[in-house]
Write a structure and sequence with these properties.
Blueprint: H1 16-20, E1 36-42, E2 48-54, H2 56-59, E3 64-68, H3 70-73, E4 104-105, E5 111-117, H4 120-127, E6 131-136, H5 143-146, E7 162-170, H6 173-179, E8 182-190, E9 193-194, E10 202-208, E11 213-218, H7 223-234, E12 241-244, H8 260-272, E13 276-279, H9 282-288, E14 291-292, E15 295-303, E16 309-321, H10 329-337, E17 347-355, H11 369-387, H12 391-398, E18 407-412, E19 418-421, H13 426-436, H14 442-451, E20 473-479, E21 485-489, H15 498-510, E22 517-521, H16 538-565, E23 572-575, E24 578-581, E25 584-590, H17 594-597, E26 616-623, E27 636-643, E28 650-655
Parallel strand pairs: 1-13, 11-12, 16-17, 21-22
Antiparallel strand pairs: 1-5, 2-4, 2-6, 3-5, 7-17, 8-15, 9-14, 10-11, 10-13, 15-16, 18-19, 20-21, 20-28, 23-24, 24-25, 26-27
């Protein structure tokens, strides 16, 4: 491209070539010498005591290499339960899943044992021969019943099924209701849902005895966090454990958590010294992958004669399921999301989180924000019905106008920062949407359709969600001795095109095409830190990190060129991938040749500030956009500091974003 610009222009995605030609590399495609396959024995009961497990028949099957229960794995584990991931508040002890069930199962599909065999078919057949002596126990499946005094306990050791309760509140709710000329109420059930990405969960654990290193290839959204949790559980350090996410066929939140199956495979590989693969089938996804929602909302709204909000109060009951692998971010986000883009003077919501004998509910597709938005939109529809007003007009009257931005709610994210709408013209956005669908003409279209026996409806909703979440993301940009520009990042591709976006951001600094940049992501061996893919954040955080690092590499390349061409840096231009003396295009060379012209050899000249041991610039970007409609940060502060670097043409950057909740 002649002007070296790539951002904002349509480009072919870097990811598409392999994916469209069948050359993608998903976990299921990985093959290692001597690889075995695993199948899990899962509970058919919602709640039962385990009185014994007989694995003898399964072990005798031809092709079976091992049948493991928790007792077999425990000597290799530092703890039998998974760590509580993303702890943000004080919660009871022993609420996370066990690696394999011990003396009790708490939901249908909980893993009890694992069979490892030559093929998955053999493992499945042998798993059917594992005899588990269950004693069925009373189960609770409805979170409303779970909090009744005499309700069965989801776990025998619990005194109560109440995991936690908390309140969101601000303003004088009681006074607002006492003075309100109108009130209305809604009772809502928001049912469970699953992620169901095209590719289910899956992992391959490979132990290399020569390097004394375990590598876990996992279809995950958080490779670095999985490594951190596994280090804790397996008593390994960073040099002994590598986690790699190959191509990931969608995640939607269900892969933003470490599962017991990943730990089981890792331990089994250490015990057997063999590669072991497990690929989740669709039935297992229904049974054991995290789900979302399962909430009951009882709400009352106070409003004036014009349909303007005065206050909302009520209760929300959230079904957590049997275990809590990842904190309470789902009910917390839902409870703080209810005001959304609307001016709500007073708010009071009591939240209770109950355990039941079902699979855990964690963030999937929106992490609780759609639930809060749905509750508010139903209240606004009730106001329109009560006052016989147009639904869009009720919303217009309550949307935060542009002249009130930034608009701060007296609510806090789980990180403790105020929930702030920092920019946007919400009434304008709604007006544009209504004009685009010819909202004014809908009643006539509806009437004509009804005459033909067709029923048409129209729903209206507005919502906001925090994006660009931190606390950071990492990016390294390097021009190697081969001349290739490479990016290494902790960001996690899962089908959304983040590799292409990062390549565009980097390529623009060197005046090259994005396809000339390689992007390596989701591999803990090539970059030390990473947060992963969640909350619409990676272009903001990882993109900023890559941009800062690319700028530094560009500066280093220009410094090298200035030294070698015996001119000042200000006399140079970098375009179309070439560094040239301004006005003398023939005097210059390809930017990709910079590392070759700056070798780690004492006999060769090199500017002092670009030597191989000179520096890497590390930068941070803090952005306040906790509830921004625009995903890009509106305000930022950039800082940098020198640190040690292995190459004169390498720079790493970490961006840190404020308001870091999931």
């Amino acid at each position: 491209m002649s002007d070296g610009k790539s951002i904002g222009r349509p480009v072919k995605r870097l990811e598409d070539g392999p994916l469209l030609t069948g050359k993608g590399r998903f976990v299921a495609d990985l093959v290692f010498p001597g690889m075995l396959e695993a199948a899990f024995v899962r509970s058919p009961h919602a709640h039962a005591a385990i009185r014994g497990i007989d694995t003898s028949a399964a072990r005798r099957c031809a092709g079976v290499h091992a049948v493991f229960t928790l007792a077999d794995l425990a000597p290799r584990l530092a703890q039998e339960r998974l760590p509580l991931q993303f702890r943000t508040t004080k919660l009871p002890r022993d609420i996370t899943p066990l690696v394999l069930a011990n003396d009790e199962v708490a939901f249908v599909g909980e893993a009890v044992a694992v069979v490892i065999a030559r093929t998955r078919y053999i493992a499945e057949d042998a798993a059917a021969l594992v005899a588990v002596d269950y004693e069925p126990l009373p189960a609770v499946s409805d979170c409303r019943q779970a909090l009744a005094p005499q309700a069965p306990r989801a776990h025998r050791v619990r005194d109560s099924n109440l995991l936690i309760d908390f309140q969101q509140s601000y303003g004088d709710v009681a006074q607002a209701f006492a003075r309100a000329p109108h009130r209305a109420s809604v009772n809502l059930k928001q049912h469970r849902g699953g992620a169901h990405s095209i590719e289910g969960r899956g992992a391959v654990a490979v132990y290399d005895a020569n390097e004394d290193r375990l590598t876990l290839w996992s279809s995950t959204q958080l490779a670095h966090e999985v490594r951190a949790f596994l280090m804790t559980m397996l008593r390994l350090d960073e040099n002994q454990l590598r986690v790699v996410a190959p191509d990931v066929g969608g995640g939607f939140g269900a892969k933003f958590v470490m599962y017991p199956e990943e730990v089981t495979l890792a331990v089994s590989s250490l015990l057997l010294r063999r590669p072991i693969k497990w690929i989740e089938d669709r039935r297992e996804h229904f049974l054991a992958a995290i789900q979302e929602r399962d909430q009951y909302w009882d709400l009352e709204v106070a409003f004036d004669d014009d349909g303007r909000l005065l206050a909302v109060r009520g209760q929300m009951l959230h079904d957590e399921g049997a275990y809590t692998p990842q904190g309470i971010n789902l009910p917390y986000n839902a409870s703080t999301a209810l005001p959304g883009p609307y001016m709500l003077p007073a708010f009071e919501l009591d939240v209770r989180v109950a355990e039941t004998n079902k699979v855990a509910t964690m963030p999937v597709r929106g992490a609780g924000y759609p639930e809060g938005a749905f509750a508010m939109e139903r209240l606004l529809d009730r106001i329109a019905d009560e006052l016989r007003l147009d639904r869009a007009e009720v919303r217009r009257r309550n949307l935060v106008p542009a002249d009130k931005m930034p608009y701060v709610f007296p609510l806090k994210t789980r990180a403790g920062s105020p929930i702030t709408l920092d920019s946007g013209d919400f009434p304008g956005y709604q007006r544009a949407a209504l004009e685009a669908i010819d909202y004014a003409g809908f009643p006539e279209r509806q009437r004509r359709a009804r005459e033909r026996g067709r029923y048409l409806g129209l729903g209206i909703g507005n919502g906001v969600k925090g994006t660009g979440r931190g606390p950071f993301e990492s990016g390294i940009v390097r021009i190697g001795r081969s001349g290739r520009v490479s990016i290494y990042t902790g960001a996690m591709p899962m089908g959304q095109g983040i590799k292409t976006a990062l390549a565009q951001i980097c390529a623009e600094q060197f005046g090259i095409a994005p396809h000339e940049v390689s992007v390596v992501a989701g591999d803990t061996a090539v970059i030390p830190h990473g947060q992963g893919g969640f909350a619409s954040r990676q272009t903001v955080t990882a993109g900023s990190a890559v941009h800062l690092a690319a700028v530094k590499v560009r500066e280093k390349a220009l410094e090298v060129a200035a030294h070698l061409l015996e001119v000042g840096v200000g006399d140079l231009e970098l375009r179309d991938g070439r560094i040239e003396i301004a006005g003398a295009p023939a005097a210059g060379y390809r930017c990709a040749r910079s590392p070759k012209r700056c070798p780690a050899c004492p006999a060769m000249p090199c500017p002092a500030n670009s030597s191989p041991d000179s520096r890497t610039c590390r930068a941070s970007c803090r952005a306040r956009s906790p509830m921004a409609a625009d995903p890009m940060p509106s305000r930022s502060r950039l800082t940098s500091r020198p640190a040690a670097s292995p190459s004169c043409a390498t720079s790493s950057s970490t961006t840190a974003a404020g308001s870091s909740t999931r």
